[in-house]
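Re: the request from the purification team.
They wanted to know what the chain is likely to look like in 3D before they choose a buffer screen. I agreed to run a prediction and write the result into the notebook, where they can find it.
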Amino acid sequence: MTRPLADWHADHRKTLTKGDKAADRLRNVMGSWFFVGGFVAFMIVWAIVNSFKIAWDPYPFILLNLFLSMLAGLQGAILLIAAKRQDAIAAALSTHDYQTNKAAKKEIEELMAINRAQLELLNQLCGRPADSAETTKRVERARSAGTGTVVEGSA
C-alpha cells in the first residue's frame, strides 16, 4: 500500500539543458531590483558623461536608443523562453499531482475496505448481526446527521 516518494524537482533539474538553465538565470537576474537599479544607474552615467565635451553620443543619445532597443528585443525573447519553460513545468507538476491523487484515492479506498472489514469483525465479536448493509445504513444516517457516531438501536 506504500508508494515510492519521488522528488519531482530534483528529477526535473537533471533534465534541464544548458539553454534552459541560462534562460532561468537571465530571467532571475533581469527580473530583480538589482538589475533595475543597475540599469537606471547606467543610463544616468551615460547621460552625464555624454552631456560634456567628450561626448561620443551627444544628446538625443542615438547610440543609447539603439542599445535600449536591442536590449528590449533580447529581453522579450528571453522572457518568452522562460514563460514557455514555466508553462511546461506547471503542466508536468499538474500531471504529477494527478498521479499522486489517483494513488492516494486508491489507498483511501483500500483503507475504507479494511475499516469496513474491521467493523464487521467488531459486530461479530459483540454478538450483533453481521448484516453489512444494515451497518452501512446506520453509518450513513449518522454521517448525514453530522454526528459521525453510530448510535446503538438507531436502525
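For the purification team: The radius of gyration is 33 Å.
Please add any questions underneath this entry.
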